[in-house]
Amino acid sequence: MTYQQHHNGKAIDWSRMQFETRAIHDGQEPDEATGAVIVPIYQTSTYAQEGINQNKGYDYARTDNPTRSALQSAIASLEGGQWGLAYSSGMAAMQNVMYLLQPGNHILLSDDCYGGTYRLVSKVLARYGIEYSLADLSDLDAVRANLRDDTRMVWAETPTNPYLKIVDIAGIAEIIRASGNTETLFIVDNTFASPYLQTPLALGADLVVHSATKYLGGHSDVVSGLVVGNDPEIRATLKFHQNAAGAVPGPFDCWLVLRGLKTLGVRMREHSANAQRIAEWLQSDPAVETVYYPGLPSHPNHAVAARQMRGFSGMVSFTVHGGFESARRIVAATKVFTLAESLGGVESLIEHPGEMTHASVAGSQAEVAPNLVRLSVGIEHVDDLLADLEQALEVATPAGIGSR
What we know:
CATH superfamily of the largest domain: Type I PLP-dependent aspartate aminotransferase-like (Major domain)
Radius of gyration: 22 Å
Mean pLDDT: 94
CATH topology of the largest domain: Aspartate Aminotransferase, domain 2
Order of helices and strands: EEHHEHEHEHEHEHEEHHHEHEHEEEH
Structural class: alpha/beta
Distance between the termini: 56 Å
Number of helices: 13
Number of strands: 14
Number of domains: 2
CATH class of the largest domain: Alpha Beta
């Protein structure tokens, strides 16, 4: 339980309160020295000690920082975990978790995963004797078929990037338990859903990973990563890695993510509502081939998403008639949607995964279709977003396709 002492002298158990309240308060008590209601930015590299190894809980900023500590407490509360750790990027968080592997271990990845994750596993970890394979983790039979005796990690995204498949978190956790391999860790990348919409630890995951650059930060002004879990031994190992490898966030970065967390609930509701409207609209446009959005009843994993999520987030992908050229023209034709990588900010973004975020998976089992377009739907007025997509589809798709 997390308690906070207020000026009225009453201890508050934040764990009993709702998400939006915890996002604003848990781990973020007013500053004892000044009463500041927002966690200060402790912009210091070192801390005065009263004697050799006698300090007030902090000695060097790579090891710990009070602003980082507040962020770590806050994300642990929101994910329902016992602890959280912060890193300088989402990839740094992933790398730190993968330090838990040993040469000869096997990692099972989704065949629809972020290009940076695939690159880290296939181009970096493989050089150090870590084996990997890809499977459709939204198919529980495929999970069973691809688990090996030497599998030490199952790494899932849900929704996946960029096809927005939904992984049955509780189902995979049960399969791992039933295998009898107590050394296999189940990691869920919760970046696309955020803890407002989904809490994987409660469904059986061992660790949750975030690129906090995305929805948690929410304003496209910070790069950061987070890991949350319950096991104290794993925490001790990861904490050692965090300090030893040194890929830690600066205090201002931590402060920016804390700022973003305070409005996460209201933002995710708006992202999800806008994305639902856009996905439904895209389904009716003749220029569009297939729409990928878990909030649509036509999505093959819609039932699983409805069961384990509290909303369907702001990511929408779709393929268009006319192949790569049509997709290229569409992403160049929008006016409100900005052509850019990344996602999860208040502004709407559009990109071509095959040439941008997922270029590193070209030629692999995880390669994406050349006519795929990915949207990060922001919180602008949805009518403006729909009008922007309509004009882009009209001018960018082959003649005779896309007219309403």
